[in-house]
Design a protein that fits this description.
Shape: elongated
Largest sheet: 5 strands, mixed
Distance between the termini: 142 Å
Structural class: alpha+beta
Mean pLDDT: 77
Strand order of the largest sheet: 10-16-15-12-13
Order of helices and strands: HEEEEEEEEEEEEEEEEH
């Protein structure tokens, strides 16, 4: 092996290329990334560069010790890997470096999921602007937002700011015991450097006098208890009716026998 190739071979085995990002990686905005090997020898065959990972937008002509790549990334590229490999034909060696892309993108896939009582199956509100809940029920609202960096989420009812149940996850709001006074407009705000979102819901708290058949689908969590109470009331009424009829029958039967006995005397 030629003496000049020994330092290059040693460098390729111990050093890796450097990837420099010019600015920040933002969705939809072209950004240049440079892969360089400043430690390579000036003499000898120039190295060759290759990029693998996300879909390549454009590759600029290589300089002797660097390669510039232009990428226009999308939200789905966030968290993916990008690799720059450098080969040295004269020495027959190669080296590479891999980075994880941190792509900034605005709010998307916004949703609010509603859980009644201990239900694990949520109702997705979609475009609904009204939410019905029974007096005494527990309610959990979960805000689902996809963004990078994560959005700042806050909840309020009227002019009152509501404290999230989990400080580390402000997208979750729990109302453990809803009362009639909790009714009104509940607002979820999401703040992000690239935009904001606001959703308001009219929380309608239903009492016993507010019962309507159409509420069945929205309040399945409370219906087993309601049906159990109704069934118990009907069974109790049936038991009392049976006892009352039996008492009337036997009372009349005893009086009838007493009358026949006196006539026989």
């Amino acid at each position: 092996m030629q003496p000049l190739l020994l330092p290059l071979l040693w460098a390729a085995l111990t050093d890796t290329p450097d990837i420099h990002v010019q600015g920040t990686l933002a969705s939809g905005r072209p950004t240049n990334l440079t892969c360089a090997v400043p430690w390579a020898c000036e003499r000898g065959t120039p190295p060759t560069f290759s990029w693998t990972g996300v879909a390549l937008t454009s590759l600029h002509p290589e300089s002797p010790h660097s390669s510039v790549l232009t990428l226009t990334l999308q939200p789905q590229d966030h968290g993916t890997n990008l690799t720059c490999r450098v080969s040295f034909p004269g020495a027959g060696v190669s080296t590479y470096v891999t980075i994880r892309l941190n792509v900034s993108y605005a709010l998307q896939n916004l949703d609010i999921r509603v859980f009644w009582e201990n239900s694990t199956v949520p109702k997705i509100l979609g475009n609904a602007t009204s939410l019905r809940v029974w007096d005494g029920q527990s309610l959990r609202l979960v805000c689902v937002i996809d963004s990078n960096p994560p959005a700042n989420v806050s909840w309020s009812r009227g002019s009152l700011t509501l404290s999230p149940s989990q400080p580390l996850d402000p997208g979750v709001l729990e109302l453990p015991w809803v009362v009639l006074g909790d009714g009104g407009e509940v607002t979820r705000r999401a703040q992000h450097p690239n935009g904001s979102s606001l959703v308001s819901l009219n929380l309608v708290v239903l009492g016993v006098s507010s019962f309507c058949p159409q509420d069945f689908g929205e309040n399945q969590g409370s219906w087993p208890l309601v049906l159990t109470l109704l069934r118990g009331a009907l069974m109790g009424a049936g038991f009392l009716l049976t006892c009352g009829l039996s008492w009337i029958y036997y009372s009349r039967f005893r009086r009838s026998r007493g009358s026949r006995a006196r006539r026989c005397e």
